[in-house]
Design a protein that fits this description.
- The structure holds 2 protein chains of 2 kinds.
- By secondary structure, chain A is α+β, with helices and mostly antiparallel strands.
- Chain A is 16% helix and 37% strand.
- In chain A, a hairpin with a 5-residue loop joins β7 and β8.
- Chain A starts with a strand and ends in an 11-residue tail after the last strand.
- Chain B is of the alpha+beta class.
- Chain B is built from 23 helices and 17 strands.
- In chain B, the strands form 6 sheets. In chain B, strands 2, 3, 5, 8 and 9 form a 5-stranded mixed β-sheet that branches.
- In chain B, 44% of the residues are buried.
- Classes of the chains: A alpha+beta, B alpha+beta.
């Protein structure tokens, strides 16, 4: 934990889509570790470091809201793109939104606030100029200034996250007291092995979710 | 979350001795007829017996558990040991009309034959061999001929058929041990690849397609899926179908079976709220769970509570003799049951707990789940999901009834259903005209005790302006909406806005009262008028009082002048009342009122009107008798 960081993340809405309910989207009750990783990586990431989420602290009571929107139903096929590349022309690479409408419902979280605790490790890509102190300083400086490479989001891109250093000592809302079993939750995607999803049994104790390290037995794929 | 709770509920029910739920690999289907294999001779036609109740106008097929239906999205796929006549016999109707002739269904029959020759290859069971013999020998052409000759009843065509075999006690073929073994082997053979189930966490065969859920209103009749990936935009990382969300076949089956059971039209667990088909269940033991669900379903459904705007018309006693006008509902209860539910609800409204009012098995700590589903073509969307202690949920529902309290008009001892509220908000009284999410949003507020949705008040105001009905229900909704937004604790807000409050100085409220008095004055002065100031000015007066009230006041002096000529005492009473109401108003009337103040306007109007209806005559008489002084302190 020597190189740990803490950040405070809030937003009016959030959507941590459950894989089984991702068509008519339904959110998990709380932020998933991979969503937390996404926020941190939006602030500072280099191939030399790898972020690990340690704890997610939920501050606000868990509340839901329903949204219905128009979206599109199909992706542009990989073959079409390949052909376009081979031909050197983008002719035919398009989606006509009006002809491909899909109305989808989303059950999203309202008024969320979290504290993310994480640390990083140096990877094999770290060169002689990389050291922990340097990356820690970069991260904290960027966090304090509100800098990011892309706007971090709360689960999905349309729900932007406000982030900043943790000020004072925020405590979880009284509604969150007690132990709550949140069921099997997506831990992250194992991109190295066939984009295999990995799950862990999420448990929230007084608003705090302790995220197991990726190598632990608690994380299964 | 949802899937986990549903599959656990399935296990609880099975362990609790529920025999109605299908076992794994089976599903309940409506069966129209049975093919008697015992009496089949090669080259002949087997007898086809119609099943179920055929005495009524509309035949009721027999419901029975048969090997689980295959999911036919498109194309041809046969079920095991049962199917539609097109598959079993190779005959179907040419069109959809009842008198359309029978035609051969070769492709379907061939699929059925192939499935069975494949799955039953090497069987030594006499009954199954007979089935193979039948399938080998039979042709769709003969089926058509047999239907035309009347050897196969026309009612069986397009219905579901099963097979029977045996002399004496004729048995259903799919129940034979050998048939069950063959079905189990078949399922194993086609099982998907193993993977980690994200609901149960164990490694098991993963379901490729999820069960169809039937009974959600507005969804396709064949059923819709809660979990599906039916377009390319819904998949990710190149995964296909069920692999996008690895769920074991066992869990998929369990949640499907129990959800279909909960959604069954005659079940105790289901209610329609707006466009959301909602089911309730608890973790109480079997019979108590049914009862609790039935009571909660009725707390929000139309079978109980205020049905119409005329608050006094339908009272409890009307229901006791069973002749009260029964609303159209999809919940079938005997009169005795209805009475029990009504008693239980009244007891709850008066502050008893579920355990006291209904069954000792219902502790306040019993968990309650509520799931609202809405259709979206072939898919189901979650409208709301709620999980709580039963005791808390009951408290919240009771709180909702108390927040609606209006005196006179709405009494928490005779609870109002959510359905009645929605009906009062809907143009033409048709729930289809409401915004789709509203029912679910109100339900969520009722069950969780949180503020009501913002559009509830906006809609009530809009309806009041549109049709001029300032009904008790609409006003009660505005009142409850304001109370919950005020952030006051339930005990603090207990008496707020329940009946006329002469001390309330909110401008909207005062203006509402003033408007009611002015309207009444006009009625008194000009009896028999077709359109009063309410019909012409209510909307404008509540939205832009600054420009309307001066006009109204000018008119009222004429009304008062006319009244003074023949009923001096009454005119005086109006003068003092108007003066008393105006007293609390600012000298500059606001140019317009916001939603909250418009709500208070409606409440003030309603209170003042009700107060004048119940109280004015006696006081007016007193005034006419020449004792104007008694009128001033009218709330003594």
């Amino acid at each position: 934990m020597a190189f740990g960081v803490r950040l405070h993340v809030t937003g009016p809405r959030a959507l941590y889509t459950r894989p089984e309910m991702k068509v008519e989207r339904v959110s998990y009750d709380v932020m998933t570790p991979s969503a937390a990783r996404g926020i941190i990586e939006a602030i500072h990431w280099k191939p030399a470091i790898r972020w690990r989420i340690d704890r997610i602290i939920v501050l606000n009571p868990i509340r839901f809201e329903t949204i219905r929107r128009n979206e599109v139903g199909s992706k542009i096929a990989a073959g079409v793109v390949k052909r376009a590349r081979a031909a050197g022309s983008t002719a035919g690479v398009y989606t006509i939104v009006e002809e491909d409408r899909q109305q989808r419902a989303s059950v999203v979280l309202r008024d969320v606030a979290y504290i993310i605790e994480a640390h990083f490790e140096l990877t094999a890509a770290a060169g002689p100029s990389d050291n922990e102190g340097k990356h820690l300083d970069i991260f904290n400086r960027r966090l304090a200034r509100g800098q990011c490479y892309q706007q971090p989001c709360l689960g999905t891109r349309e729900f932007a996250a406000d982030f900043g250093p943790v000020e004072g000592d925020p405590v979880p809302h009284a509604d969150l007291a007690g132990t709550r079993d949140l069921g099997w939750m997506l831990y992250d995607i194992d991109y190295a092995h066939g984009m295999q999803p990995r799950f862990f049994r999420a448990r929230m104790v007084d608003g705090v979710i302790t995220v197991p390290p990726p190598q632990s037995d608690e994380v299964v794929s | 979350m949802i899937l986990q709770q549903l599959s656990e509920y399935y296990d609880r029910r099975i362990e609790g001795g529920d025999t109605d739920l299908p076992e794994e690999g089976m599903s309940e289907q409506a069966i129209d007829a049975a093919v008697d294999l015992e009496r089949f001779q090669p080259g002949g036609v087997p007898p086809v017996l119609l099943l179920g109740d055929r005495s009524g106008k509309k035949p009721k097929p027999l419901r029975m558990t048969v090997p689980a239906a295959i999911k036919r999205t498109s194309g041809v796929a046969a079920n095991f040991l049962w199917d539609k006549s097109a598959y079993v016999l190779g005959v179907k109707r040419a069109g959809k009309t009842p008198d359309a002739g029978a035609v051969a269904a070769e492709k379907e029959f061939e699929a059925f034959r192939q499935l069975h020759t494949e799955a039953l290859a090497g069987t030594e069971d006499r009954a199954l061999l007979k089935l193979l013999e039948f399938l080998e020998d039979w042709t769709p052409e003969r089926a058509v001929a047999a239907v035309e000759a009347g050897e196969i009843p026309i009612e069986a065509v397009d219905g579901n058929l099963i097979f029977r075999f045996g002399r004496g006690t004729v048995r259903d073929l799919h129940r034979f041990r050998a048939a069950r073994a063959a079905w189990a082997a078949r399922r194993e053979a086609v099982a998907g690849a193993a993977g980690r189930c994200l609901v149960s966490g164990i490694v098991a065969p993963i379901a490729k397609l999820h069960p169809s859920i039937k009974g959600v209103r507005g969804a396709q009749t064949a059923g819709a899926s809660l979990v599906s990936f039916n377009l390319s935009a819904f998949t990710s990382f190149g995964k296909e179908q069920g692999a996008n969300a690895p769920i074991s076949e066992r869990v998929a089956f369990a949640y499907g079976a129990v959800l279909n059971k909960l959604l069954a039209p005659d079940g105790a667990h289901r209610v329609q709220i707006g466009d959301a088909t909602t089911v309730f269940w608890t973790d109480a033991p079997n019979p108590a769970d049914d009862t609790a669900s039935r009571v909660l379903v009725n707390a929000v459904s139309p079978t109980y509570g205020l049905m119409d705007e005329d608050a006094g018309a339908e009272v409890d006693e009307a229901g006791e003799d069973g002749t009260a006008k029964k609303p159209k509902i999809d919940l079938k209860m005997s009169d005795e049951e209805a009475k029990r539910v009504r008693t239980a609800l009244s007891a709850l409204a008066r502050g008893r707990t579920m355990g006291e009012a209904i069954s000792a098995d219902l502790h306040p700590d019993t968990r309650l789940w509520v799931l609202g589903l809405a259709p979206n073509a072939a898919r189901l969307a979650l409208r709301f999901w709620y999980e709580d202690r039963l005791g808390d949920a009951v408290d919240h529902v009771r709180q909702h009834w108390h927040d609606l309290r209006l005196d006179p008009g709405i009494d928490p001892g005779r609870p109002v259903s959510v359905y009645a509220l929605l009906k009062a908000l809907a143009p033409q009284g048709k729930l289809d005209n409401l915004p789709p999410k509203l029912g679910g949003d109100i339900m969520r507020a009722v069950l969780s005790g949180r503020p009501y949705p913002a559009n509830m008040a906006a809609l009530a105001l809009m309806r009041i302006r549109a049709d001029g009905e300032i009904s008790a229900l609409r006003v009660a909704m505005l009142k409850a909406w304001l109370l919950r937004r005020s952030g006051k604790e339930p005990l603090e807000r207990e008496g707020d806005l329940v009946s006329l409050d002469p001390a309330e100085t909110n401008t909207g409220y005062r203006l509402g009262r003033l408007f009611a008095v002015l309207e009444n004055l006009q009625r008194a002065a000009l009896p028999g008028l077709n359109a009063t100031i309410r019909d012409r000015f209510y909307g404008a007066a509540s939205a832009t009082p600054g420009s309307i009230f001066p006009v109204l006041m000018r008119g009222s002096t004429h009304h008062a002048a006319k009244l003074r000529k023949d009923r001096g005492g009454l005119a005086h009473w109006y003068d003092t009342t108007i003066a008393e109401v105006i007293d609390g108003l600012p000298s500059n009337l606001p140019r317009h009122l916001g939603v909250e103040d418009q709500g208070r306007f409606a409440i003030g109007y309603f209170h003042q009107r009700q107060a004048m209806m119940t109280r004015a005559p006696a006081e007016v008489k007193a005034a006419e008798a020449g004792e104007p002084a008694a009128v001033g302190d009218d709330d003594a």
